[in-house]
Design brief:
- The structure is a single chain.
- The protein is of the alpha/beta class.
- It is built from 17 helices and twelve strands.
- It has an eight-stranded mixed β-sheet. The chain has a two-stranded antiparallel sheet with strand order 4-5.
- Strand 9 and strand 10 form a beta hairpin.
- Helix 2 crosses helix 3.
- The longest helix is centred in the first third of the chain and has 21 residues.
- About 45% of the residues are buried.
């Protein structure tokens, strides 16, 4: 490390420490994935479990946050990175109305299906449709998916069965039935595919699943649909969710300003969710051409290095990144030349997100943002305290940073960190209050 870099690194650590002293992050320090900001609990909870989403957080996390900061059941709950609807669904169960926003069509679809109020008549019709489907012995393939990569992620027998069932679903006259069947089928992808999600993409499984005939895949789907029926009958949604399919980086105006925000933006960890969920996006029909993937990335937060975004029109970045971290990383041998522009773009996007959000908040609104810190070139990127400082420059007040777990970066990065620096590699909840107009 050059003398100049040593000076810059020391200055960065001084700023981090000053921000630590100001915000006093407290909480868990153990390395675990079974935390409130992890989706594991959702996989055991009615309706939440309809579609697994490893980037989501738990229902109890939403419940505890809303219960702590809500002043009235009239409060509006908002999740601007809505994911698969965990915030909206749990808020509805508690009796609140909620708004969700996202650029991911898969998430929008899952949220729409999960937060819908199903009438008794619709449930009875759904049961009849399941019984009818169960009686079908075969079905002609009338649909295709024009992506050779996706086809390789399935055994041929299973793939043909998948297309048969998709073809059957497409012929159902009732949109509600089609949506429930489609979500159930998408929820099985991870189980029936020969590949599993691994980091920023997929990897072939060591133990391959058995090929599934039409009858065998139908049986699995019926089991999942039957679970849906039970969950609908045993869940009381007392509130309504309104869902917006758009980027929160664009100007927007909610029908009513929000009182509580709980969300988790993409982390600056180089994960490209158009790749991680590529199979589901194509099988679900959300992507039909490569242009669809490009449009998805165009509207997404700059958080990975696998795409070159068009320059954003406005800059809401931070001097910590632009004047300290960037000069440090410019002297490093990074694994991608796009890491530096990614980090600059990420924090600029986070600033724009906070600015647009502020225009849709009631005075005194509470905002909870789950973030994950990262490491590049042996330099910790302390997103939690950096974001808190950005927010305060925009008229928010940081009232708390709660650390939920340590995050383990790659071994190549961890060995470059001092013991002191390792404390910044963590996942946290940044809690803000909206107290004034943006500057």
């Amino acid at each position: 490390m050059t003398q100049e870099n040593k000076i810059l690194k020391a200055r960065l650590m001084d700023i981090y420490q000053a921000l630590e002293n100001k915000y006093n992050p407290m909480g868990l320090t153990i390395g675990t994935y079974d935390t409130p900001v992890n989706f594991n609990e959702s996989l055991r909870t009615p309706i939440h479990r309809w579609y697994g989403y490893k980037e989501g957080f738990s229902p109890s996390f939403v419940n505890e946050f809303v219960s702590k900061y809500s002043r009235s059941l009239e409060d509006i709950i908002f999740d601007p990175f809505g994911g698969v609807g965990t915030t909206g669904l749990e808020a509805n169960k508690m009796g609140y109305n909620a708004y969700l926003m996202d650029v991911n069509p898969l998430g929008i679809f899952a949220s729409t299906v999960k937060t819908r109020h199903y009438s008794d008549i619709e449930v009875d019709h759904f049961v009849n449709e399941i019984n009818l489907f169960e009686s079908i012995e075969k079905w002609p393939i009338t649909l295709s998916i024009d992506n050779k990569t996706i086809v390789k992620y399935f055994d041929e027998t299973t793939w043909n069965s998948l297309l048969q069932i998709k073809s059957y679903i497409s012929k159902r006259g009732d949109e509600t039935v089609r949506n429930l069947f489609s979500l159930a089928l998408l929820s099985l992808i991870g189980e029936i595919s020969t590949h599993h999600k691994n980091g920023n993409g997929v990897k072939k499984k060591r133990m391959l699943p058995e090929p599934l005939s039409f009858s065998a895949l139908k049986e699995k789907l019926v089991g999942r649909l039957s679970m849906y029926i039970g969950d609908i009958k045993n869940t009381n949604l007392k509130g309504e969710t309104t869902i917006f399919y758009q980027s929160n980086l664009e100007g927007y105006a909610l029908p009513s300003k929000a009182d509580i925000v709980l969300t988790s933006p993409p982390y600056a960890n180089c994960f490209d969710y158009s790749k991680v969920y590529l199979t589901e996006l194509w099988v679900g029909g959300f992507f039909t051409t490569k242009e669809d993937q490009k449009l998805f990335r165009d509207k997404s937060v700059i958080s990975h290095v696998h795409y070159r975004w068009n320059p954003r029109n406005e800059t809401y970045g931070t001097n910590i990144i632009n004047n300290l971290i960037v000069p440090i990383l410019e002297k490093k041998d990074l694994w991608s030349n796009n890491i530096i522009p990614m980090l600059k773009g990420y924090f600029s996007d986070m600033g724009k997100f906070l600015f647009n959000l502020s225009k849709n908040l009631n005075e005194g609104a509470t905002v909870g943002i789950v973030v994950g810190n990262s490491v590049y070139g042996g330099t910790p990127i302390a997103t939690d305290v950096i974001l808190a400082r950005q927010a305060e420059e925009l008229g928010y007040k940081c009232i708390n940073i709660k650390v939920y777990r340590k995050v383990i970066a790659s071994s190549q990065q961890m060995i470059l960190l001092s013991d002191y620096e390792k404390k910044y590699v963590r996942e946290s909840l940044v809690v803000l209050k909206w107290i004034g107009e943006t500057k």
